[in-house]
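Discussion board: Methods & Data

I've been asked by a reviewer to show the raw model output for two of the constructs in my manuscript, not just the figures. I'm not sure how much to include, so I'm pasting the format here to get opinions. Each protein appears as its amino acid sequence followed by a line of discrete structure tokens. Is this the kind of thing reviewers expect to see in a supplement, or should I convert it first? Here is construct A:
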Amino acid sequence: MNRRISKPVTEEEDARISRTAAADPDARELTDAELDELRPAHEMLPMIFGQDNAEQLMRRRGRPASPVTKELVSVRYDRDVLEAFRAGGEGWQSRMNTALREWAAEHGML
């Protein structure tokens, strides 16, 4: 998975962005009265799109949360052990977890 790390905006870039936004007639600041009228999407979407469509729009994206939680740890393994698991391709971490689980069960640790 490729994740880009964005650079912080410089003061010059921030000033240019602010000037551009201020010059845009469609990007005016909202008044206090307009801000008071704003409502959260979960209140407005059913009125605009209907309850079923609103629920679909508001549904959480991605993989559902697993009931079994994992813990992130930092561990050092011998290079040859890692190479052996990585050679199996995608899912090598899960296979390593399964191997550790089986070993722990065989030795009465689980």
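Construct B, same format:
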Amino acid sequence: MCPLAARAVTALALAIAFIPAAQAFDFAPIRQGVVELLEAGMKEEEIPGASIALVDDQRILWAEGFGLADKTRGERARAETVYPIGTLSQLLTATAVLQLAEKGTIDLDGPIADKLPEFSIKTRFAPGAP
């Protein structure tokens, strides 16, 4: 994430963190600041498009697309635009697995077959061999 986008996300997170849950809140001024930071970051880092969403307790409070989802076709980015994430999925998977281990849902040192019985690795060794 570019430094300006990281600052935008951090500013939004900090502002939202201090809002009492029961209170109706107009976050339009915060939204405008985040939009300005995001657009500046996109320009600085030459990012053609991005989508952002603010979610609170499974409710989407705000979602919007910026720039282009596909430069060659001139397709605008929307809140619903799906972006390829490449090797970022490895980081997300590792984070999810570590969170499950922290909760005690899985044992990182246990056999994979305990959770995925259909999983197997081709091996030249006999079953049960180290």
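Answer (T.O., handling editor elsewhere):
This is acceptable in a supplement if you add a one-line summary per construct. For B, something like: The two ends are 42 Å apart (CA to CA).
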